[in-house]
Amino acid sequence: MTSSFFLRLALLAGLAAHDSARADSVVYKCVDKSGRVEFTDINKPGCKVLDLPGYISAPAPAPRAAPAVTMRQGAGRPAASPNPAGFPRVDTATQRARDDDRRAILEDELRSEERKLADLKRDFNNGEPERQGNEKNYAKYQERVAQMRDDIGRSEKNIEALRREIANIR
Questions:
Q1: Rg (the chain; Cα; Å)
Q2: Confidence (pTM)
């Protein structure tokens, strides 16, 4: 037996023992006319199903149901699907209170982020922040300036995202 056979066998055993190996596939051992051995998941002439110890195949996935209404060009919106029986509904007043709480939290975060941005811009000093005592090396100073630029950009993006979220609340 050749070393490639043992290598293939070891690879197959490793795949069978590995958690992320496909559990729903069948492994076949195929021997062609010249005697070469191949392990595959495709059934070909001359192939036999391998019984791998400890290998438990998963059941076939359930077929997906076709969507009730499909959108086609020129078609209107599909009818809203009714809520399943027993699905909890939230009354309008409760939802409005939740939205108000969410808005208050987001506005508080927005004010906090705007204060942070103002402090960052003040320290940044239009791209020329004061040098600190430990920045005798100019490269360290440039690194800090670049980090400050990144922090300002990140803070501006956070503010934009918070404003979008606030605008999306009904």
A1: 31
A2: 0.47
Between 134 and 7, residue with greater pLDDT: 134
Say whether pLDDT at 28 is over 80. yes
List phi, psi (to 5°) of 120.
-65, -45
Distances (CA, A) of 94 to 82, 83, 90, 98: 21, 18, 6, 6
pLDDT band at 21 (very low <50, low <70, confident <90, very high): very low
DSSP the chain: --HHHHHHHHHHHHHHH-TTS-TT---EEEE-TT--EEEESS--TTEEE---TT--PPPPPPPPPPPSS---TT--PPPPPPPPTT-----HHHHHHHHHHHHHHHHHHHHHHHHHHHHHHHHHTTT-PPPPTT--SHHHHHHHHHHHHHHHHHHHHHHHHHHHHHHH--
145/120 Cα distance (integer angstroms):
11
| AA letter at 11 | L
Q: For residue 52, give both structure tokens.
A: 């791998």
Q: What is the biggest distance separating any 2 CA atoms in the chain, rounded to whole angstroms?
A: 79
